[in-house]
Amino acid sequence: MRISDSYCQHSYQCRLGHITRSYQWASNPADSLKCSDSHCTLHSLLIGRGNTLNSAAPPTFYFEDPKSGHIYTPSGPLGPKVTKKLSSQGYLLREITSDRDYAKFKRQFSAQLTQEHDEAVAAQIQFDKLVFGPAREEGRRRLREQMESMSSEGREFAAAAMREGDRADFEKYQQLTRPYDPQTHIESRELDSQSRQPWNDPSRGIGDHY
What is d(CA 170, CA 164) in angstroms, rounded to the nearest whole number? Predict the structure, then answer.
């Protein structure tokens, strides 16, 4: 999928005269699509390429588990193999075609990312407590014992070292627990908020007309 390609509406027609409209890349439209008429079982052939929609952004897809609401965003090209694999795992392919869709995606995905972040932070804090906590306490205990035989300057230096350690631990905790903003956004949707018909691209296993 080339981002620089043009986004066009193409026209298809079956032998009964039904017209099917399909938004696809200008450079590689499908030769045929299943007729969009719900009562027609024929395939429609490409009869004309529409005008290029220069301001239109590429289509945006994501997968959602309808039971848990979990969202998965593919990191690589979207194709039939990816769609089939995730569909077998219970995911549904969703397309963002309007501002309402986009707002729903941002709200849902932001909540998911925030929850995942908070769980990771809690796990990190628990790990530090279990792994480093005992060693830190043992080090403090030995240092306090040694301070009993130190000079006043030595005790002051040791106390300052412990305060510095406490300060570093506190700053690390603050860094981990600071408010988290996932900054969920899709640049193409931010630049192009127009609504559009669902995308059809048989080569990628996307759409309703095949």
Answer: 10
Q: pLDDT tens digits, residue range 99-130?
A: 888 889 999 999 999 999 999 999 999 998 89
Examine the pLDDT at 17 and tell me if it is beyond 70. yes
pLDDT (0 to 100) of residue 114:
93
For 124, other C-beta atoms within 10 Å of its C-beta total 12
Supply 25's token pair.
Answer: 């890349």
Residue carrying structure tokens 């908070």:
118
List, in order, residues 6 or more apart from 101 with CB less than 8 Å away: 94, 95
Q: Encoding tokens for residue 143? A: 């240092």
